[in-house]
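step: validate -> pass
step: tokenize input -> pass
step: predict -> running
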Amino acid sequence: MKWFLPALLVMFVVGLPLTIAQTIQVDANLPVYKKTTGISGNANSIGSDTMNNLMTLWLEGFRKYYPMVNIQIEGKGSSTAPPALIEGTAQFGPMSRKMKAKEVDAFEAKYGFKPVAIRTSLDALAVFVHKDNPLDCLSLEEVDAVFSKTRKRGFPEEVKVWGQLGLTGTWANKPISIYGRNSASGTYG
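step: predict -> pass
step: emit ->
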């Protein structure tokens, strides 16, 4: 590779772009970017799949200036970003969580500096039930009991069937099927 980014970037991400009415102040003395010559190689992004679209836009934008740069984006979950950055197989490691102290330490031990974090987004989670389910709403305590064995929000029991949430009739004994993020996701820390 003939080029290397001055610092490997670790993006803390999570879903929704930060388009919340923030005014960005740009230094008026900042010079206009000038394209340089001789830039070629690979720009690899490995990490959170929630950032695939943004990473594609960024890297394709970079490639407009430098068409000799090959881009590759792999969205396999936040936990895949730190090893890829440390092993040098990626220059970008988009994550939907902060790097753990041991991940930062391993990166710093290899490269002599801490990874750079650029927060680009905010997280948003949603819980849905099928349209035919007669349930009107779920409390946070009930959601915790459905998705967690610890029930830290205080629900008295682990919830396995819809009847435990107040549904009756044919719904009472129907098991709850849970669908969620994969185990490599930043959702799991």
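step: describe -> The longest helix spans residues 52-65.
step: cleanup -> pass
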